[in-house]
Amino acid sequence: MAAPEVMIDATSDSYNSMSSDNVKGLILGLSSSLFIGASFIVKKKGLKKAGASGVRAGVGGYSYLYEPLWWIGMITMIVGEIANFAAYAFAPAILVTPLGALSIIISAVLAHIILQERLHIFGILGCALCVVGSTTIVLHAPREREIESVREVWDLATGPAFLFYGALVIAIVLILIFHYIPQYGQTHILFYIGVCSLVGSLSVMSVKALGIALKLTLSGMNQLIYPQTWVFAIVVTLCILTQMNYLNMALDTFNTAVVSPIYYVMFTSLTILASVIMFKDWDRQSPTQIITEMCGFVTILSGTFLLHKTKDMADGSTLMAIKLPKHVDEEDGFGQEGTPLRRQESTRTS
């Protein structure tokens, strides 16, 4: 009878330890998903309104900066990110991070209701696979190591492995921005989202460093006197500005219900990869945990492929022969840039 009693006591202690702070973290995490999911829709409405009277963000315009509705969406996203950051102060990452997947569902539902952006049944299945795969990876990811100074994070960030990753990310982003996006950005969603996700993986590492510095500073160990803290702050600023710019282009060009899950999947996967490289998380994991994470990654790839290939599927049947940006005026047969649909079709087939 001793073993069951020990098990019951351990379960009870675990439950009691989760009943206070973890509930706060759960509420903050759910609030974060709600705000972030809604922000995609509000920003999209602002982008559409700004594009009707100025140059669209999808073709390099910045008229949305003068649109109050876009700023409401931006503020909503910032509130969500603050709630997400605060959630990590009350609950472990294994509880908070998977809640980010709820923003996909919220965004897709609101896009269907407000923006009339229909998501096909196979797209819904793709979203489900993306969420399941991402959740599998996060639930089996190791806990973060204890760090007592921002200089420790700097040492990790300047290690050979992460320096190589950072250089590779920067090189890929520059190639995408200057070569692929000008040619294929309007028809291939992965180029815009790729830039956001790659840059985002670097920004999260810097945000973690700033979070550690802030926590240590508030506890009495001032980290603001170290130049490394300010270097991380500069990196965060540059990365967020880049992410915001190309995410706006993606939202202005493609359906929100497609942008949100693909961005979540790629961003989560690359962020976990960056964390594994920088913090050497896999050194503290068993082969079973690593294999489980790989299975989750394969699930993510499957969901992304299904979602991307069925985003233009018609009401019950076949894929559309023409895959175009969604800015199309079907009544007169012309896109918003004035290109006839038949001419676009012949261009694609040639």
Number of strands: 2
- Main sheet characteristics: 2 strands, antiparallel
Q: Largest sheet, order of strands side by side?
A: 1-2
Terminus-to-terminus distance:
77 Å
Radius of gyration: 22 Å
Shape: globular
Structure, described:
It is built from 13 helices and two strands. The chain is mostly helical and 350 residues long. The protein has a two-stranded antiparallel ribbon with strand order 1-2. The longest helix has 33 residues, at 21-53. Mean pLDDT is 75; it is low at 1-19 and 314-350.
Sequence-ordered SSE layout with sheet pairings:
Blueprint lengths: L1 H17 L2 H33 L14 H23 L2 H4 L5 H13 L6 H19 L10 H8 L2 H25 L4 H30 L8 H27 L2 H24 L7 H23 L18 E2 L4 E2 L5 H9 L1
Helix pairs in contact: 2-3, 2-5, 5-11, 6-11, 6-12, 7-9, 8-9, 9-10, 9-11, 11-12
Question: What is shown here, in short?
Answer:
By secondary structure, the chain is mainly alpha-helical. It has helices at 2-18, 21-53, 68-90, 93-96, 102-114, 121-139, 150-157, 160-184, 189-218, 227-253, 256-279, 287-309, 341-349; strands at residues 328-329, 334-335.
